[in-house]
Amino acid sequence: MKDIKSLTFDELKTEVELMGEKSFRAGQIYSWMHEKLVTSFDDMSNIPAALKEKLKGEYSYTVLKPVRKQVSKVDGTVKYLFELPDGNRIETVSMDYHHGHSVCISSQVGCRMGCAFCASTLGGLVRNLTAAEMLEQIYGVTRDLDKRVDNIVIMGIGEPMDNYENVVRFIRMINSDKGLNLSVRNITLSTCGIVPGIKKLADEGLGITLALSLHAVNDEKRRKIMPVAKSYTIAQLMDAVDEYFEKTGRRVTFEYSLIAGVNDTDEDVKGLAALAGGKRSAHVNLIPVNPVTEAGLKEPDRAAVQRFLQKLTGMKVNATVRRELGRDIDGACGQLRRNDNNIM
Ligand code: SAH
Q1: What pLDDT is recorded for position 99?
Q2: What is the domain partition of the chain in residue ranges?
Q3: Domain 65-329 bears CATH identifier 2.30.110.10
Q4: Which of 87, 118, 203, 247 qualifies as a FRET site for 55, CA 20 to 30 Å off?
């Protein structure tokens, strides 16, 4: 069955007309799903019963089931384990951050990128999420907390560029004035660096913020911790990033997870400054690597992180250390998993 919540407004309108219904019904149905965020056809009170039955016969209606909710005692970050209609599970994180309420969503069930420091990739990729399943993460959090989402970061489980079409569909739908109307300025997509995806995104006319997971400043080192680096060199990545800026006017953010003894030397600072500084003027987000038991990597101590930051800013690079929200509930970067053995 077709998933009604993954249809754009125009697609829904066409379908409704093909069913022989008046086209204004499409506006009503779309608004119930994407503005009022109801969880079933039965809740659509101004839709005639006969049409509701017809819709139930033709379409599935995706709703995610919250299986577990954890609240950080340290910073109030909330992590949800959601069950998808097929029984797979993914995680979503809600944080109160710099500019309001931010939600970090997953884009795939698992991930096939294999980064050495990340928990999300441990069991490989199961499948892509649909646009509805990405929307529902936002809707589920909004319903539960009764609080509007201000910012979305596509940085949870999965590589968004590996599910390109659905991710772009999701962005267009959440940005639509017929849905939650969230500005593209408040949406960030993070990628491990799939060059053709970055170039394609530059041409979408979307102007969302792009974050690049860099983590190493030379190809040899990068290949050791990120298998994707075997496919694309840093030089190719920088070309793509420059193209993204030229076409969208949006400067790219570089994410750099600091791992003790791996990428935290003076050479690394210099290399990072050379890549992020100058005309490119990328913002660098330093993330002391978050603990993932299986990875066994250590973060540098606090003082070492501060020294790295100071050296970088001393070289005129715009850099900050990311707050490690939700670490106590394994809700920080790289700690999300598609399954959990310790629930309920
Ligand atoms: N696949 C995308 C988005 C998901 S990861 C990407 O690679 O960008 C979101 C960010 O968290 C990425 O920058 C990722 O490299 C980083 N990350 C992964 N594991 C981490 C860990 N253990 N500690 C800190 N950051 C981590």
Answers
A1: 78
A2: 2-60, 65-329
A3: no
A4: 87
The reply to whether CATH 1.10.150.530 applies to domain 2-60 is yes
- Pick from 118, 293, 324 the residue to mutate for probing ligand 1's pocket: most ligand atoms within 8 Å of its CB: 118
Ligand 1 atom, smallest distance to 213 CA: 13
pLDDT at 343: 42
Q: Which residues are catalytic?
A: 91, 333
CA 26 to chain centroid, in Å, comes to 29
Residue nearest to atom 17 of ligand 1 (CA): 334
Q: How confident is the model at residue 296 (pLDDT cuts 50, 70, 90)?
A: confident
Residue 242: is it exposed, middle or buried by C-beta count within 10 angstroms (0-12/13-18/19+)?
middle
Predicted model pTM: 0.96
* 212 CA: nearest ligand 1 atom: 8
E-strand spans in the chain?
Answer: 2-3, 59-60, 65-71, 78-83, 89-97, 100-104, 108-110, 125-128, 151-154, 187-191, 209-213, 253-258, 283-288, 319-321
Query: What pLDDT digit, counting tens, does each position of 66-116 carry?
Result: 999 999 999 989 999 999 999 999 999 999 977 799 999 999 999 999 999
Q: pLDDT class for 334, splitting at 50, 70, 90?
A: confident
Please tell me what DSSP assigns to residue 176: S
Q: What is the pLDDT of residue 340?
A: 62
